[in-house]
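Anyone up for a design puzzle?
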């Protein structure tokens, strides 16, 4: 990851959802995890577009498995975070923390607001 290639907010949320879900992470579950934890309405299309972008960057990988009768035989695509994705997530978090250092809002340190 280049130093100036920090993750966007939705990319961060997507990677964090993948880490929470582990090996069972697929689009619909990623969407549900983001919605439940953030209260933010999220389209499945946005999730898949982000997963595709992260995969192109080498931050996630995917595998397909044959679908069962409940999916009409359609394959299900599972995702996992790869080491470069974890590094990108960590580097982005560190950059945000460096930007927040010493800032205050309403007389309180920003770290106390999060």
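Challenge accepted. My sequence:
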């Amino acid at each position: 990851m280049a130093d100036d290639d920090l993750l966007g907010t939705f990319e961060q949320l997507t990677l964090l959802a993948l880490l929470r879900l582990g090996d069972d992470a697929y689009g619909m579950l990623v969407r549900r995890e983001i919605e439940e934890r953030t209260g933010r309405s999220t389209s499945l299309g946005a999730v898949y577009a982000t997963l595709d972008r992260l995969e192109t960057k080498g931050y996630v990988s995917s595998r397909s498995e044959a679908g069962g009768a409940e999916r009409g035989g359609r394959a299900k695509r599972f995702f996992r975070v790869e080491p470069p994705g974890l590094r990108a997530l960590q580097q982005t978090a560190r950059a945000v923390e460096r930007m927040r250092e010493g800032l205050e809002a309403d007389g309180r340190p920003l770290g106390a607001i999060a």
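A detail worth pointing out: The mean pLDDT is 88.
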